[in-house]
Design brief:
- Helix content is about 0%, strand content about 45%.
- The protein is mostly beta strands.
- It has a single domain, classed as Methylamine Dehydrogenase, Chain H.
- The protein is globular, with a radius of gyration of 15 Å.
- Keywords: Repeat.
């Protein structure tokens, strides 16, 4: 029997929103029938990240997915969805290799296959890296024309390692 491992956020866990079975470094997620991923409500998510009342993950092929509370735009899906238990696609155009959020955080940052950094959600302290302190409901390119190998989103800050060190 595989060991079940919850991904905990504050004040929720991914297990509460969807059924998760983590095997090695991937998990199988079974969500509501209103998921926006097509006729099947099942999708394999390779990595999952839990924030403050929401969860994001990277599906096969690099598709970013989020579900949960969206009061600061942290689902990155646009619109004014306040809570969603179904998986929502962050962007049809972007393919992610890494996402980052923290248990107390209400924003997400990610690195795409082209090594660009995008952030979305709360930005009270400029943590989205786009020169603004206004929350954003969709992915925003981090300013400066930099490329990244790693990125981290903290409570009210974000930081990354660029490709040139």
């Amino acid at each position: 029997m595989p060991k079940l491992t919850p991904v905990l956020g504050n004040p929720h866990s991914a297990v509460r929103v969807c059924s998760l079975l983590i095997l090695t470094f991937s998990c199988f997620v079974a969500c509501d029938s209103d998921a926006t991923l097509g006729p099947s409500s099942n999708v394999v998510v390779g990595r999952i990240y839990a924030g403050h009342g929401f969860t994001c993950g990277i599906a096969e092929g690099g598709t970013g997915l989020c579900w949960g509370i969206n009061d600061e735009g942290q689902l990155g899906v646009g619109g004014d969805i306040l809570f969603g238990s179904a998986l929502r696609i962050v962007s049809q155009d972007l393919r992610f290799v890494e996402l980052s959020t923290k248990a107390a955080g209400r924003h997400v940052c990610g690195i795409t296959t082209s090594e660009e950094a995008y952030c979305w959600g709360e930005s009270d302290f400029g943590q989205l890296g786009n020169g603004s302190s206004i929350f954003r409901i969709g992915p925003q390119l981090v300013s400066g024309g930099l490329t990244f190998v790693s990125i981290a989103a903290g409570w009210r800050s974000s930081w990354g390692i660029t490709t040139d060190g």
